[in-house]
């Protein structure tokens, strides 16, 4: 699943419909305004994410520089309590402090990024579930309405068929009576 971008939200178009008298429509300006807010939020989140990635990359680069400049026993020294440069005569104390700070910043940014990602994902899932539920509800309402309209049309068709049958029967009786009158009139006229 690909994530939405600001452009996806801004460029999304919907099919216009003409609501029937019982249907509810949405104000297009309100929907557009909301989508603009969503697009702006996405843009801000992407910028913040990119900024955090840059800071993380800088921290990793600095850690790499410090590790490259440290002696082979530096990792062990970093795990040991920090020593001052006066005690050791080298930079292992400050380097270990900088490494620890870089690791703390890294962990902080990673955790914040994960929390923000989880929050955004949870919000997206909630919004997705809401939209799906609304769509299903609309589908069910439309289906129910169409079933009702179909039932009404079927009743009207049955009524029209009954009317046609009755009309044909009355027309047939009328024509037979006319024919009978004509025949009796001819028979009576033939006797004169």
UniProtKB/TrEMBL annotation:
Belongs to the DivIVA family. InterPro entries: DivIVA_domain (IPR019933), DivIVA_fam (IPR007793). GO terms for biological process: cell division. Residues 129-166 form a coiled coil. Pfam families: DivIVA (PF05103). It is found in: Cytoplasm. It comes from Flaviflexus ciconiae. It comes from the Bacteria. Residues 63-91 are annotated as: Disordered. Residues 67-83 have a biased composition (Low complexity). The keyword Nucleus does not apply. GO terms for cellular component: cytoplasm. This is Cell wall synthesis protein Wag31.
């Amino acid at each position: 699943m690909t994530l939405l971008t600001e452009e996806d939200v801004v460029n999304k178009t919907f099919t216009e419909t003409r609501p029937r008298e019982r249907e509810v429509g949405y104000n297009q300006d309100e929907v557009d305004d909301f989508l603009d807010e969503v697009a702006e939020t996405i843009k801000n989140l992407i910028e913040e994410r990119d900024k955090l990635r840059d800071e993380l990359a800088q921290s990793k680069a600095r850690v790499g520089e410090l590790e490259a400049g440290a002696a082979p026993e530096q990792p062990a020294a970093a795990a040991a309590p920090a020593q001052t440069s006066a005690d050791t005569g080298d930079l292992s104390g400050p380097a270990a402090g900088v490494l620890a700070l870089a690791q703390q910043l890294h962990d902080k940014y990673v955790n914040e990024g994960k929390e923000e990602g989880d929050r955004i994902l949870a919000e997206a899932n909630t919004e997705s579930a809401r939209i799906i539920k609304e769509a299903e509800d609309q589908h069910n309402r439309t289906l129910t309405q169409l079933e009702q309209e179909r039932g009404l049309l079927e009743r009207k068709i049955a009524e029209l068929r009954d009317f046609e049958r009755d009309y044909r029967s009355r027309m047939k009786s009328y024509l037979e009576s006319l024919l009978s009158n004509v025949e009796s009139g001819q028979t009576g006229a033939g006797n004169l």
